[in-house]
């Protein structure tokens, strides 16, 4: 079998663009990815669209004006993991020989939802009681801080690091440096989380990649996919350990096994830092350190640019922004550009191996509803 390669990437600006429909954002990313890959629209045999909040037929709506020729369009909604799940399905089709060239894209426009937390299914018992995402992560933060004697300043330092990275990313929503004091003094959201410890609630954006088993003709060296894992949450009817990210740890084990590597081999990681506590929990779930040791990994500088294993060099969800359908693919774009040595001021010297991790949604008794992990290589 010929291994599928990522030969082109494209990404729109991330920010608040109520004047631009999500279809326009997707079109910008798709056209940029095709140009990067040196592939014509007529050569694309299928499209995979990740979208979480755009309603029905988001893929067809985005492609309507791009002069496609009736190729199949697959729409995937897996909450914040939608784009990454679309990538997983596209890789399966290419590996099986169903197609030789496809485009995977994801987008969402949250500015037209009016702000606030993302709406959740009210048939879920926890959601009816007000367990929106900030509340859930605040509970996890309080438990983690108590369990491992973590000061709130450590949570703030996650935001400081990622905002510093985001200031180097031209497409990021927030490009302003912040101090620990500013993070802690920002408006309370759900104790101990303040506004600057949460990803922005209103962000629009899109990202796209071209996958092919044909010889590459693009501007940059193709990127290989060593592992593509999608897992769902396991119902836990008993007492749940809120300091453990079970689905991410399980997905990471499968990804490392599939790629034949371990966490020490990675050059960088893009992970789902929807809230500052998320990043600390995922350090441990991804095997970067032991349980309760995340604060020491962060404060050592190991996960900052210039450190041993930079995490979220793009700025992550906290600085870059989080349009759910686009997030997983935006992570892939960042890792590809790092591996291809074209990440500009945030370039990690010699980056060759990167991991992306994105979770999706939450339902009662489950850590997360979905998790997608990809490992990419030069």
Mind explaining what this structure looks like?
The chain folds into two domains: 5-114 and 203-223, Thiolase/Chalcone synthase (Peroxisomal Thiolase, Chain A, domain 1); 125-200 and 226-377, Peroxisomal Thiolase, Chain A, domain 1 (3-Layer(aba) Sandwich), CATH 3.40.47. Helices cover 34% and strands 18% of the residues. The protein has twelve helices and eleven strands. The strands form two sheets. It has a nine-stranded mixed beta sheet with strand order 3-2-4-7-1-8-11-10-9. Strands 5-6 form a two-stranded antiparallel sheet. It is globular, with a radius of gyration of 19 Å. It starts with a strand and ends with a strand.
Structural class estimated from helices and strands: alpha/beta
CATH superfamily assignment of the largest domain? Thiolase/Chalcone synthase
Strand arrangement in the largest pleated sheet? 3-2-4-7-1-8-11-10-9
- Helix and strand succession? EHEHEHEHHHHEEEEHEHHHHEE
> How much helix is in the residues?
25-40%
Per CATH, the architecture of the largest domain is 3-Layer(aba) Sandwich
What count of structural domains?
2
How many strand segments? 11
CATH level-1 class of the largest domain: Alpha Beta
Number of helices: 12
Return the average pLDDT rounded to an integer.
Answer: 94
Beta-strand percent range: 15-25%
What is the CATH third-level topology name of the largest domain? Peroxisomal Thiolase, Chain A, domain 1
Radius of gyration using CA atoms only: 19 Å
Sheet with the most strands, sense and barrel status: 9 strands, mixed
The low-confidence runs, each spanning 5 or more residues with pLDDT under 50, are: none
Query: Which assembly state applies to the chains in this document?
Result: single chain
How many angstroms does the end-to-end distance come to? 19 Å
Shape designation: globular
């Amino acid at each position: 079998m010929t291994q599928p390669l990522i030969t082109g990437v494209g990404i729109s600006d991330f920010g608040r663009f109520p004047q631009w429909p999500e279809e326009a954002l997707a079109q910008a990313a798709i056209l940029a990815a095709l140009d990067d890959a040196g592939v014509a629209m007529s050569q694309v045999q299928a499209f995979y669209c990740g979208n979480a909040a755009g309603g029905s037929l988001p893929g067809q709506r985005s492609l309507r004006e791009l002069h496609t020729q009736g190729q199949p369009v697959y729409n995937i909604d897996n909450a914040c993991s939608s784009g990454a799940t679309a990538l997983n399905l596209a890789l399966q089709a290419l590996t099986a020989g169903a197609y030789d060239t496809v485009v995977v894209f994801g987008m969402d426009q949250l500015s037209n939802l009016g702000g606030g937390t993302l709406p959740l299914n009210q048939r879920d018992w926890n959601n009816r009681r007000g367990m929106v995402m900030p509340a859930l992560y605040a509970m996890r933060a309080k438990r983690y801080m108590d369990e491992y004697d973590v000061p709130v300043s450590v949570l703030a330092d996650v935001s400081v690091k990622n905002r510093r990275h985001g200031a180097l990313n031209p497409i990021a929503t927030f490009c302003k440096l912040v101090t620990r004091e500013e993070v802690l003094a920002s408006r309370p959201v759900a104790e101990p989380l303040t506004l600057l410890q949460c990803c922005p609630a209103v962000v629009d954006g899109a990202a796209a990649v071209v996958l092919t088993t044909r010889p590459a003709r693009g501007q940059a060296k193709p990127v290989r996919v060593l592992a593509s894992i999608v897992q769902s949450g396991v119902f836990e009817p008993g007492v749940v350990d809120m300091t453990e990210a079970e689905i991410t740890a399980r997905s990471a084990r499968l990804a490392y096994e599939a790629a034949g590597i371990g966490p020490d081999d990675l050059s960088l990681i893009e992970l789902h830092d929807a809230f500052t506590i998320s990043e600390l929990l995922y350090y441990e779930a991804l095997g970067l350190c032991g349980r309760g040791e995340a604060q020491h990994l962060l404060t050592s500088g190991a996960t900052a640019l210039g450190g041993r294993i930079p995490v979220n060099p793009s700025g992550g969800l906290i600085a870059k922004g989080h349009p759910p359908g686009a997030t997983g693919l935006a992570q892939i774009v960042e890792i590809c550009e790092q591996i291809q040595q074209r990440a500009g001021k945030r370039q990690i010297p010699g980056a060759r191996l990167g991991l992306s991790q994105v979770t999706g949604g939450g339902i009662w008794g489950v850590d997360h509803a979905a998790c997608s992990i990809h490992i990419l290589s030069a």
